[in-house]
Amino acid sequence: MALAIRDVREHELDAVLALNNTAGRSILVLDAVQLRYFYDHADYFRVAEIDGQLAGFLIALRDGGDYSSPNYRWFNEHYPSFVYIDRIVIANAYRRHGLGRIFYCDVNSFAEVRVPLLACEVFLEPVDDVVVLFHGTYGFQEVGQQRMGEHGPQVSLLAKDLPSYTYVRDTYLEHGGLPDEPWLAGRPTLKTDNTTKRRLAGERRS
Fold this sequence. Notes:
Blueprint: E1 3-7, H1 13-21, H2 32-41, E2 44-50, E3 53-62, H3 70-78, E4 83-90, H4 99-112, E5 117-123, H5 129-137, E6 141-147, E7 154-161, H6 164-173, H7 194-205
């Protein structure tokens, strides 16, 4: 089995959309416009490819964006710097193969050289003990709860401290930035708008 975790490609968006919208009630449905927003603005948007087949994806965003998710906005109001995991989806045929942990290790590696905190949420209605346990064993702690809209589900807001960030900040970010290595690079398709320019500059000052 050949596994690759890599940045999403534009021609794969239809397949990603179909995978998202058949994932079940724990994953919020997207339309093409919403997915395009992620393609244009998400700091982390990677897919898992197994033997040439799309097996899953994970989308995450840094702080300071205009994303309208109430959970993302909650973290923006409470923390100055973080990477927020918006969603992770694994295709049915590839579940129980450890892809979730592989994705979380990958996004953790992406985040810890940029920010001090990795954030996400889990649904509490209905509660999924497997999902709750997964996040707990991976080092997440509950930092709050809220309801997603007047009639939406209650969610547990989770955060994980990234202790490696302090070393990276003091050694690299405050002294010229990260080394020019492929595994440290951001998404090549990320738009260089004012927000992105501010973030890129901020990586030198964080």
